[in-house]
Amino acid sequence: MPDVEMKAADKAKGDKKDEKKDEKKKEEEEKVVVKPPPTPAAEIKSNVALIERGVATMEPRFTHRVLRTLTALRKRADDKVLRDVIEELYPKAGPVKDSLLSWLPPAGPADHSMDVDPAPTPTKTATPEPVPEGEIYLRLQMIHNMHKSPETYKKSIELSHETVDKMQALNRRSMDPIAAKLWYALERSYELGGQLADARPRFLAAQRTASLRHDDETQASLINRLLRSYVSYSMYDQADKLVSKTTFPTSAGNPQFARYHYYLGRIKAVQLNYSEAHTNLQQAIRRAPPAKTAPGFYQAVHKFFVVVELLMGEIPDRGIFRHPVLEKALNAYFEIVKAVRTGSLSQFQTTLSKHAAQFEADKTYTLIVRLRQNVIKTGIRRLSLAYSRIALRDICVKLHLDSEEDAEYIVGKAIRDGVIEGRIVHESGWMECGAQKGGYGPEVGDVFSRRIGYCLELHNESVKAMRYPLNAHRKELAAAEGARERERELAKEIEEGDLDDDEGLGGDF
């Protein structure tokens, strides 16, 4: 039985090797230490350090890197985090520290029992206070933190005013990127407090100053702030004048451009300029952040986009209403689309009255009311396809119109606009629809002949291109010249007697 013993020994060696491999894997896994994500306090402090680096090196890209994290960071920060950051960045008492802490609630007993960051080493030297840009950044974080509770809305307006005044008094160009975010925070404070119209004079004055200083980021932000203020109060004429008198900076970022195109789309839609409104809303969708990053803006743009497409006589793509971010938000608009598509005026009126509150909140109610004519036109088109002659009274009943005079006016306008083909017989009180076009009428024959002519022309051009390939004659000339050269050599050899005539003519032949 020696073979069996050898197999057992091999198995034992294999088991030992596997155990060693497992031990090595465990050791490697123990060596790899997963670093926990930084706390909000640590992230704010590192952002202040980046701002100081950007000011020292005159590189605004560091400040832009900090501002890109503002949206995610402000959701995690609270009063305790901001207080701890101020205590660590400003170890000594001073006017800046006292001013910042005065806007935060006093620390409770529970706040002292927990440390956010590990204690500093005893050998740590005292660090200087942050630059003014760092202070404005901390104030910006505090303003966004006050937006979380309705009780602090009024306090956020006061802090925003103080911060803006301090920023304008310092007059440092290195604050321009932060200033654009600060004006948005000021507008948000006024909007949450229900006093958005009171901030308009301040925005206009700041916009003039930014345009004179060629501060593109602040100028783009302030134009959007003013447009939002005008559109919120339905002051579309003033918004249109602002757009015509100002030039939006081309160097602005995509988020600012997305907001600008969104407001332009709303203004053009109210002014019955649906084609330009559709283009602007489409640009806003393309330039907007991803749907999961900014779901609210994504939903707001698509609500107006769907309504404008309906006003243009088009039916939106069904895939829009199946998007996970838009499915619930656009449910009411999907019912409106179905009513317009089927031409059912009763269904349209029912849906409009059912979701009137939502449409008014979305500022789309006045635009959706205009769709009534589109619904009637669609219904008349369907009736003209189904009947060769129909009484105006029946049209009035089927489309739920008020009277036969309304039906006669609407049908006449549809015939004049080219929606349907037919005529109204006033004596008999009916509408005669135009004869349906046959599948092989003269128009179809003309189109077919044009397509056949195009195909034949394309075939002839392809044959011509294949018949004479490029530089093909050069190959023929080279082959003929080689044949003549071989004939000269053969004749020369025959004359010299090196080759017999029979061999030169083909040997055995």
TrEMBL record:
Spell out the residue ranges making up region: Disordered.
Answer: 1-40, 107-130, 479-509
UniProtKB keywords: Proteasome
- What top-level branch of life does the organism fall under? Eukaryota
UniProt biased composition (Low complexity): 116-128
Q: Which GO terms describe its cellular component?
A: proteasome regulatory particle, lid subcomplex
What ranges does the record list as Basic and acidic residues composition bias? Answer: 1-33, 479-494
- Ranges of biased composition (kind: Acidic residues): 495-509
What GO molecular-function term can you cite, just one? Answer: enzyme regulator activity
What Gene3D superfamilies does its record include? Answer: 1.25.40.570
Among the GO biological process terms of this entry, one is: ubiquitin-dependent protein catabolic process
> Which Pfam families does its entry note?
PCI, Rpn3_C, TPR_PSMD3_N
Q: Which InterPro entries match?
A: CSN3, PCI_dom, PSMD3_C, TPR_PSMD3_N, WH_DNA-bd_sf
Please state every residue range assigned to the domain named PCI: 258-438
SUPFAM superfamilies to which the protein is assigned, alphabetical: Winged helix' DNA-binding domain (SSF46785)
Query: What protein family does this chain belong to?
Result: Belongs to the proteasome subunit S3 family.
Q: What is this protein called?
A: Diphenol oxidase-A2
